[in-house]
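Structure catalogue
Derive C-alpha cells from sequence
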Amino acid sequence: DPQLALIQGGLHLSLNMSRALGHAVLSRYGVAPVPDIFDADVLPGDRLLIACDGVWEVLARDEVVLQLTLAAEPAAAARALVRLVETRCRATNRKSDNLTAVCVFFE
C-alpha cells in the first residue's frame, strides 16, 4: 500500500498528501482537507506571509516580522526568510527540506 511507510522499525501512515486532499482511512483520526478560513481587512502597507511549518518551526514570530519589515519587495522577503531558515538549520544540523514562503505586500 503506497500510503504505508516503514520508518525506524515501525509502520506509519503517510500524511504527505492526505492533509491536502483527504484520506479515507486517516479521516477517522481527524485528518481532513477542510481549510481554515479567516476574514481580514487589509490596508496599504500591510504584508501577508503564507509559510509552511518548515519556516514556523525554526523562526520565531518576531524574526519573521523583522524580515518582512526589512524587505523592499515580496520576493526579497521570501528569499530572506528561506535563507535564514537554511542558515539556522545548517548551524544546528537540522533538516531544511520543508521550506515554502509566499509574501504579498499590499499597496
Observations:
- The CA atoms of residues 3 and 16 lie 9 Å apart.
- The longest strand covers residues 47-51.
- Strands lie at 4-7, 10-13, 47-51, 101-105.
